[in-house]
């Protein structure tokens, strides 16, 4: 079975940083566009950041642009999300996702269990 295991979430103060990691199993990240999604409490799941497998092109939602950075490591078969200057509105469950479509709108065909990020003082 395809698996995506996210980790690295936790409680952090506003202005702090966290690095999320996602380990893929039973498929290779090389060959797939990958993304991070999040679901804030009481809201719909939303796209946060994505990266193409071929050229490494990156795409970010306006709310995280300039603060978050997505990356992938083919040797380790992982995808990461570096989150800096965190804000309370970044509080959400974060999911690593495999994309079936990049343009015009990134669409995921699979995501794993999430990791909770809470930004609070």
Supply the key terms.
single chain, 121 residues, seven-stranded mixed beta sheet, 52% strand
End-to-end distance = 39 Å
- Work out the helix count: 0
* Low-confidence region ranges: none
**Per DSSP, what share of the residues sits in E-state strands of 2 or more residues?**
over 45%
Global shape = globular
Characterization of the model:
- The protein has 121 residues and is mainly beta.
- It contains no helices and eleven strands.
- The protein has strands at residues 3-7, 10-12, 18-25, 34-39, 46-51, 58-60, 68-73, 78-83, 92-101, 107-111, 115-119.
- The strands form two sheets. Strands 2, 4, 5, 6, 9, 10 and 11 form a seven-stranded mixed sheet that branches.
- A hairpin with a 4-residue loop joins strand 7 (68-73) and strand 8 (78-83).
- The relative contact order is 0.32.
- The model has no long low-confidence stretch (mean pLDDT 96).
What's the topology here?
Elements: E1 3-7, E2 10-12, E3 18-25, E4 34-39, E5 46-51, E6 58-60, E7 68-73, E8 78-83, E9 92-101, E10 107-111, E11 115-119
Parallel strand pairs: 2-11
Antiparallel strand pairs: 1-3, 3-8, 4-5, 4-9, 5-6, 7-8, 9-10, 9-11
Outline of the structure:
With 121 residues, the chain is mainly beta. 0% of the residues lie in helices and 52% in strands.
